[in-house]
């Protein structure tokens, strides 16, 4: 005889000995059977899915590291070949080792200058002058370039003057700087400032003027005012071009400083190179040249890092 059983508030007749039908758990949600319970010994599915993902991430990271290492090897191959030729040719007599000593001898001279403290003294003097002129050039040229590029009346007023001075070599004006400011630090810093200001100024003006017109129209259609438009649209879009000028100015700050230090200076890497050449200390001269190359390369890499920091929104 079937006995009634209440399930979910409904009386259901269940015959004795009747096996459970398929789908009983779905039809009667209140009943829980042993075959509906999870198996405690079963391995979690999440771990099985996480293992291939972790392996994929590891392989991807290894691939990126390997690609970066191979790229570094390719980029440094030409430098290694240059140093090998520099070391080999003087030793086999192709060039006179009196005028072009092997690279290893120049490194020994560089180390001797470092131990004596002369290299540190000249390095400090050059870096202070270079950074002073370079920093002043950024502080003056970037705001002026933004104003010239954004306001047409200012551009119409200053463009003829800029065209006049941009075509005048800074080296040609070095005697003028010395006559006006003397042989002290001020003339050298002002000379570096003048040489570095032009690439920064011109690239800043170009960056502002070459912003995509449709981008400006879209921003204005959204109701942005002139100040907000300049701050949110124009300035971020001009950052890559501005940093191109800053990187060029960073190279100029080292190059023109050497010329200034060869005239009337008592310290600096330019003075070291000129004095060593005049005294026929050829390995010391090359040691100064190597130092200048390393300083310029390090300066450029530092500016690249800063550019990436301020241009993280760009698609690479």
TrEMBL record:
<protein>
    <submittedName>
        <fullName>ABC transporter permease</fullName>
    </submittedName>
</protein>
<keyword id="KW-0472">Membrane</keyword>
<feature type="compositionally biased region" description="Acidic residues">
    <location>
        <begin position="37"/>
        <end position="49"/>
    </location>
</feature>
<keyword id="KW-1133">Transmembrane helix</keyword>
<keyword id="KW-1003">Cell membrane</keyword>
<dbReference type="Pfam" id="PF00528">
    <property type="entry name" value="BPD_transp_1"/>
</dbReference>
<feature type="transmembrane region" description="Helical">
    <location>
        <begin position="285"/>
        <end position="306"/>
    </location>
</feature>
<feature type="transmembrane region" description="Helical">
    <location>
        <begin position="252"/>
        <end position="273"/>
    </location>
</feature>
<feature type="region of interest" description="Disordered">
    <location>
        <begin position="1"/>
        <end position="54"/>
    </location>
</feature>
<dbReference type="InterPro" id="IPR000515">
    <property type="entry name" value="MetI-like"/>
</dbReference>
<keyword id="KW-0812">Transmembrane</keyword>
<feature type="transmembrane region" description="Helical">
    <location>
        <begin position="131"/>
        <end position="152"/>
    </location>
</feature>
<feature type="domain" description="ABC transmembrane type-1">
    <location>
        <begin position="123"/>
        <end position="307"/>
    </location>
</feature>
<keyword id="KW-0813">Transport</keyword>
<dbReference type="InterPro" id="IPR035906">
    <property type="entry name" value="MetI-like_sf"/>
</dbReference>
<comment type="similarity">
    <text>Belongs to the binding-protein-dependent transport system permease family.</text>
</comment>
<feature type="transmembrane region" description="Helical">
    <location>
        <begin position="164"/>
        <end position="183"/>
    </location>
</feature>
């Amino acid at each position: 005889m079937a006995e009634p059983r209440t399930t979910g508030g409904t009386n259901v007749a269940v015959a004795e000995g009747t096996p459970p039908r398929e789908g009983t758990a779905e039809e009667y949600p209140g009943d829980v059977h042993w075959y509906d319970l999870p198996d405690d010994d079963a391995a979690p599915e999440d771990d099985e899915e996480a293992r291939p993902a972790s392996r994929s991430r590891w392989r991807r990271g290894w691939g990126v590291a390997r690609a970066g290492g191979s790229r570094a090897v390719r980029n440094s191959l030409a430098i290694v070949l240059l140093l090998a030729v520099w070391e080999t040719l003087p030793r086999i007599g192709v060039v006179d080792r009196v005028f072009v000593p092997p690279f290893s001898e120049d490194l020994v001279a560089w180390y001797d200058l470092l131990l004596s403290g002369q290299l540190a003294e000249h390095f400090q003097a050059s870096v202070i002058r270079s950074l002073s002129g370079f920093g002043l050039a950024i502080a003056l040229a970037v705001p002026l370039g933004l104003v010239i590029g954004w306001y047409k009346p200012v551009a119409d007023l200053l463009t003829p003057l800029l065209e006049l001075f941009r075509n005048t070599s800074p080296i040609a004006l070095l005697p003028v700087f010395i006559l006006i400011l003397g042989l002290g630090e001020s003339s050298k810093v002002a000379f570096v400032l003048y040489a570095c200001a032009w690439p920064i100024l011109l690239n800043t003006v170009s960056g502002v003027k070459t912003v995509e017109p449709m981008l400006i129209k879209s921003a204005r259609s959204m109701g942005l005012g002139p100040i907000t438009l300049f701050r949110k649209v124009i300035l971020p879009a001009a950052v890559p071009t501005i940093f191109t000028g800053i990187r060029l100015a960073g190279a100029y700050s080292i190059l023109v400083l050497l010329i200034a230090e060869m005239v009337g200076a008592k310290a600096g890497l330019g003075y070291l190179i000129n004095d060593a050449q005049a005294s026929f200390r050829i390995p010391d001269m090359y040691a100064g040249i190597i130092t200048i190359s390393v300083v310029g390369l390090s300066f450029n890499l530092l500016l690249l890092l800063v550019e990436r920091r301020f241009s993280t929104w760009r698609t690479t």
